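Onboarding guide, step 5: your first structure request.
Type a short instruction followed by the sequence, for example:

Predict the 3D structure of this protein.
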Amino acid sequence: MNEAQSATLSADQRKKVLDRVLSALQKRFYAPEKLNGDWKAAVERHRPLIESANTPADFEKEVSDLLKELQTSHLGFFHRSARRASSRAALSATYLEDETEYGKRWIFQDVHAGGAASTAGIEPGDILLRVDDQNVIPPEHPVFTMGEKTSVEVVGADEKKRKAIVDVARPKGKKLHFVEPKLVEARHLNDVAQGIGMAI
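The system replies with structure tokens like these:
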């Protein structure tokens, strides 16, 4: 553990950071309906643990545990000394929670071309089972280490299990931008509409 990770946080610092996190959620969260009475109760339930966490690592963990209650793959909270990244940033992919024949699991939705998930062969609709041989069951989110390769096990549309290696690069700047996703893709579909090429 380095000096930045072991440094203590004052009570005032912990409270201010938590308040800023809650304020940012209130202004920017994409699903405001989730910030309901249950969420407010969760905040008060987690607040004592968050405000009493002395180290940045402990503080990061407690805030992350609170955010998990929103059950979304689009959130992450990391101390700047951490070498981890939220799954969305690391994989350039999103996923949703749903019931499957393997129980409640994360199912990949958008998989952006050029990202770690796409490069590893993960496709939309794949069911995430394990990360580094550890079961990942919602609301727990997978976390990936920057600059390292991580083994994931998924089930595809053919119902066959397969392993893939995702290689998460370190971001070049301070922001966790691993790949610039292609918002519009185009390709020709052959043998469609009696030989007329179509682009999507």
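Each response can be followed by summary notes, for example: Confidence is low (pLDDT under 50) at residues 1-6, 192-200.
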